[in-house]
Each structure stands twice: as C-alpha cells, then as structure tokens.
C-alpha cells in the first residue's frame, strides 16, 4: 500500500504529464480549427489505455495505475481515487461557472424559435435513441441487468439529444459568433436540449433505485433543492453581490472582493453539490443550479477571474483523464460492438444535424446558417462525458457502451467547428456574413478590406 507521500508525489507527476500532453496537442488542434477544451478532452484519452496503453502499456499502467492488489483483494488504486476526487472538484466548480454563464435573456429573446428548433432537436433523438436503446438492453452487453428496456431507451435518448452548452459557448466565443443570430440560437437550443437530457437522465437514475423511498428522496430532494435555490439561495447570493458593490463604491482602492464573500459563495456551491449527490442526482446538478441563481455582477466577475484558469487548466483535466481511463477502444475490435458504434455514431450525428438544421431552416434561416447551426449542435463534449460518468457510477451502463459513447463524443465534437466554419466560408463566397439579423450581405467596407489584405 503506497504511503500518502508516495500518492502525493505520483499525483504531481500525473498532473504535470496531463498538462504537458495538452500543451503539445494544442498547436495541432488549433491548426485544425479546434478550441482549447477539445485538446484538453482528447489529452485524457491519449493518456488512457486506448492510445498510450496500446503503444507502451507498461508506462501507461505505471503512470496511471487503476487497481491495487492487497492480500489477494483488488481495490481502486489511491492515485486513481485522487484523480477522481480532483476531477470531481474541478467539474463541480466548472459547472457552477457554466450555470453562471447561462443567459436567460438570450433564451427569452428567441424563445419561440429556440423552442421550436429545440423541440425537433430533442424529439428526433428521443425517437432514434429510444429505439436504439430499447434494442440494446437485452443480452446485458451494453446495459446492466438493473436497466429495463424503456430506461435504456431514455438513457440513449439523452445521450444523443445532449449538446455541450459550456463547450458550445467556448466555440461561439472563439468563432466570433457571440452577437449573431446563429450564436444566440445555438446557445438557446443547447440550453433547452441539455435541460431535457438531464431530466431524462434523472428519470432513469431515479427509477433504477431499489426502493420507493430512494425514488422519493431523489425526486423530492431534487425539486426541493431547485425551489430552495430559486428563492432562498438567490436572495442569499444577492446579498453578497450587493455588499460587494457597496464596498467597491465606498472603498474603490481596497483592491478586489473580500475573501469572505468568495468563500461564502464556494460554501453554497459545495453544500449544494453535496446535497444533490446525497439525494442521488449527483453533484454537477447542484453546482449548475447554484450558478444559474448567482447574480451577475462584480462578485461573479471576480470569481471567474480567480477560478476559471485553475479550474479549466488544472482541475478539470483530471476529469478527462478519469474518463479516458474508462475508455478502451480495443473493445471495438469485436465486430458486433464496432457495428453498434457505427449505428450510434450515425444516429447521433444525423439526428442532431438533420433535426436542428431542418428546423432552423423552417424558422427562417438560410440553408448555410441552418447547416452551421446543425453542425454546432453536435458539440457534445464535456456534458456527454458527465452523462457517461453518471451512468457508469450509477451502474447503468457497461464498459462497452461507455467506450461507444465516448468515441461518439470525440468524433461529433471534433467535427462541429470545422463544419460550422465550412458553412461560414460558403456564405462569405456568396458575399454574405452571419450577423445579428441572420445571414446578410457583407458590408462593403469589410469586403474591400479583405480584398486589400489578399
């Protein structure tokens, strides 16, 4: 059994390797038109058994040990437990920041269009995923024995319907689409689709409990938490924001928000994460809800400034590594599993791209703008991996299905940005740009500037 000092020393090396791998991958991914979070996500799979383990298994097993045998009994290796805990902490803080970035005004401004488009983006995957999941349950190869056919259908529906709101927000920002109709509609639809997917997942998790008491605790605790945060939690956090603004106005030279206020907000987030974990909905839900009720203002800006770099580039990569260690691409060498992977990948890509694209076109977008929106809807990324880990921790899915959906996540997310930019280039060739009003003629000044630069 390794000592705490040995675990700590090895953990430092693991984190250093994770960061170095991400930094080595980033120049390549930048040339491929990707955003940084995609490079971080892929780094976790590169260091897992699927790539490093296939090329140099001894080094991979030494660097990221999974199990430990003591007296003939096999248990989780302490370093894997450390990665899991740190990754969960990063995930909780990140989901709080995602919730805090959730702009209700965007959704309200495009409620009708987003509602219609999102309905297709959920209903089509609901049907496709429901049929696929229903057929995957028998045999116990993809779902555990505790999962019924309809539960497997709901799980696959949520897996196919989900769009990674935080990753999409990153892509929209980096692509300069933040103030365009395309960016606004994409974020609005992603918010609605994610909410529906989490409701489906929560339904599956709650109904697989062994007793009615557990189901009541999960559903009642979840509803109670949302109501508490919507009223009492929001008021408490608003007080901290008001005091921060008051202090800044009266003492502008003090230099930042008091540590006590930052700690108080973190206390609310961590207690919320603990409570939702305890009732069985999982910590990410509690952190996300805390973020959505957090007042937008000076205090939140300070929290973002202090925590975002550490969360995104130090804590969160541990979550991706843990996900990568659970993914074994060698399982795809089995012909039936490979065939199922192709089926799931086809349904996932076509279900989102086709449904969102056609619905957006129906709502008045041009074919190019609608195609770009359909492409962005396939950016599943982080949210899909969270869903997979919830399913695995709840003993709902097998390693085979975990690997299938993890590979689907990487491929669909990887294709999202290049496809979106392809449609944008086609618009520019036609003398059009994506603007707040939709696809409109490119301003003459911009066209002349582009011609001069070439």
Features:
454 residues; mainly alpha; Na+/H+ antiporter like fold; two-stranded antiparallel ribbon; 4 strands; disordered C terminus
What features would you describe in this structure?
This protein is mainly α and 454 residues long. It has a domain at 89-317 and 336-410: Na+/H+ antiporter like fold (Up-down Bundle), CATH 1.20.1530.20. It has 19 helices and four strands. A hairpin with a 2-residue loop joins strand 3 and strand 4. The longest helix has 39 residues, at 212-250. It is globular. The chain starts with a helix and ends with a helix.
Sum this structure up briefly.
This protein has 19 helices and four strands. The chain is mainly alpha-helical. The strands form two sheets. The protein has a two-stranded antiparallel sheet with strand order 1-2. The chain has a two-stranded antiparallel sheet with strand order 3-4.
The H/E string reads HHHHEEHHHHHHHHHHHHHHEEH
Which structural category fits the helices and strands? Answer: mainly alpha
What percent of residues adopt helix (DSSP H or I)? Answer: over 70%
User: What shape does the CA trace take?
Assistant: globular
Which segments are poorly predicted (pLDDT under 50) over 5 or more consecutive residues?
Answer: 448-454
CATH class term of the domain at 89-317 and 336-410: Mainly Alpha
Radius of gyration: 23 Å
Proper CATH architecture of the domain at 89-317 and 336-410: Up-down Bundle
- Give the CATH topology of the domain at 89-317 and 336-410: Na+/H+ antiporter like fold
Distance between the termini: 64 Å
Approximate strand percentage: under 5%
Regarding quaternary structure, how should these chains be classified?
Answer: single chain
Strand order of the largest sheet: 1-2
Largest sheet: 2 strands, antiparallel
Counting DSSP H or I runs of 4 or more residues, the number of helices is 19
Quick check: average pLDDT?
A: 83
Secondary structure: number of strands: 4
